[in-house]
């Protein structure tokens, strides 16, 4: 009998800002050289860390941005090397800060929602763009 493994707990945000584009907003995506992928800022929670606090911390670490968290978005569940991973997400408006490349994230882009959806590497990250628009009553 195999014992179910405890899921890897992680959290992140779909980071957005107001923009002059036709959608009225842009979404931040980060590029991680270790995986050569584009994703929403997210990361593993520290032991005992509140998921929302961890999401805000990860946004600051990966993007250099301070954010104002808003509505919860769908949780993403998938396997990593056979182990379940659960990532809780929130909508978060960028309010201050500036991106500085680091070893974990070497690039960050701000894109309109349509372009962000196309740039995301993982299919599972794309519905979060729609969830953000719905949460902001733009869908």
Give the tally of structural domains: 1
Query: Could you tell me the number of beta strands?
Result: 7
Radius of gyration in whole Å, from Cα?
Answer: 15 Å
Overall mean pLDDT stands at 94
Principal-axis shape equals: globular
Strand content: 35-45%
Task: State the secondary-structure class.
Answer: alpha+beta
**Helix/strand order, N-terminal first:** EEEEHEEEHH
- Quickly give the CATH architecture: Alpha-Beta Complex
Please explain how this structure is put together.
With 139 residues, this protein is α+β, with helices and mostly antiparallel strands. The protein has one domain (8-135): Nucleoside Triphosphate Pyrophosphohydrolase (Alpha-Beta Complex), CATH 3.90.79.10. It is built from 3 helices and 7 strands. The protein has helices spanning 51-63, 113-119, 126-135; strands at 8-18, 25-32, 37-39, 42-44, 65-80, 83-97, 107-111. Strands 1, 2, 3, 4, 5, 6 and 7 form a 7-stranded mixed beta sheet that branches. The mean pLDDT is 94.
Task: List the keywords.
139 residues, alpha+beta, Nucleoside Triphosphate Pyrophosphohydrolase, 7-stranded mixed β-sheet, EC 3.6.-.-, hydrolase activity, NUDIX_hydrolase-like_dom_sf, Nudix_hydrolase_domain, NUDIX hydrolase
Structure described in brief:
By secondary structure, this protein is α+β, with helices and mostly antiparallel strands.
Topology:
Elements: E1 8-18, E2 25-32, E3 37-39, E4 42-44, H1 51-63, E5 65-80, E6 83-97, E7 107-111, H2 113-119, H3 126-135
Parallel strand pairs: 1-6
Antiparallel strand pairs: 1-2, 1-4, 2-3, 2-7, 5-6
């Amino acid at each position: 009998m195999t014992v179910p493994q405890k899921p890897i707990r992680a959290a992140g945000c779909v980071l957005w800002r107001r923009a002059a584009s036709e959608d009225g907003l842009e979404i931040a995506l980060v590029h991680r050289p270790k995986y050569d992928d584009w994703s929403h800022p997210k990361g593993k929670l520290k032991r005992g860390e509140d998921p929302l606090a961890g999401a805000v911390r990860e946004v600051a670490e990966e993007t250099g941005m301070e954010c104002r968290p808003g509505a919860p978005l769908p949780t993403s569940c998938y396997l990593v090397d056979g182990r379940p991973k659960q990532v809780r997400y929130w909508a978060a408006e960028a309010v201050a800060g500036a991106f500085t490349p680091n070893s974990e994230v070497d690039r960050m882009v701000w894109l309109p929602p349509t372009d962000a959806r196309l740039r995301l590497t993982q299919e599972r990250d794309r519905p979060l763009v729609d969830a953000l628009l719905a949460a902001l009553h733009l869908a």
